[in-house]
């Protein structure tokens, strides 16, 4: 599963692990992406989306209907 949130658009960040001796190795900071299923009355069905923890909070605050409307306007496939 790709580490991209379909609601907020959060993508992985990149950086370095730095050891005690200050050697640097590449690392990746993944967002907390989870697969969630929501019932959308306007579509008359359930949708399953990859959403980050922040995206879940956005859905709780704005409602699934408003979020789905914005996603469809952006062209995200549901």
Secondary structure blueprint with pairings:
Blueprint: E1 13-18, E2 24-29, E3 33-40, E4 45-52, H1 53-62, H2 64-74
Characterise this structure.
The protein is α+β, with helices and mostly antiparallel strands and 78 residues long. It has one domain (11-72): Ribosomal Protein L24e, Chain: T, CATH 2.30.170. The protein is built from two helices and four strands; from the N terminus they run ββββαα. It has helices at 53-62, 64-74, and strands spanning 13-18, 24-29, 33-40, 45-52. The strands form two sheets. Strands 1-2 form a two-stranded antiparallel sheet. Strand 1 and strand 2 (24-29) form a beta hairpin. Helix 1 (53-62) crosses helix 2. The two termini are 15 Å apart.
Overall mean confidence score, pLDDT: 95
CATH superfamily: Ribosomal protein L28/L24
Provide the CATH architecture.
Roll
CATH topology: Ribosomal Protein L24e, Chain: T
Radius of gyration: 16 Å
**Lateral arrangement of strands in the main beta sheet:** 1-2
Beta-strand percentage range: 35-45%
* Gap between N and C termini: 15 Å
Shape: elongated
* DSSP strand count: 4
Spell out the helices and strands N to C. Answer: EEEEHH
Largest sheet: 2 strands, antiparallel
Which stretches are poorly predicted, pLDDT < 50 over at least 5 residues? none
Count every helix, treating DSSP H or I runs of 4 or more residues as helices: 2
Structural class: alpha+beta
CATH class: Mainly Beta
- What is the number of independent domains? 1
Roughly how much helix do the residues carry, as a percent range? 25-40%
GO cellular component, one term: ribonucleoprotein complex
Pfam family, one: Ribosomal_L28
Family: Belongs to the bacterial ribosomal protein bL28 family.
GO molecular function, one term: structural constituent of ribosome
């Amino acid at each position: 599963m790709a580490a991209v949130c379909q609601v907020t658009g959060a993508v992985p960040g990149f950086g370095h692990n730095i050891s005690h001796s200050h050697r640097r190795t590449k690392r990746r900071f993944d967002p907390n992406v989870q697969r969630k299923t929501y019932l959308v009355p306007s579509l008359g069905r359930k949708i399953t989306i990859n959403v980050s923890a922040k995206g879940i909070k956005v859905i709780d605050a704005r409602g699934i209907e408003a979020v789905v409307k914005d996603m469809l306007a952006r062209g995200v496939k549901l």
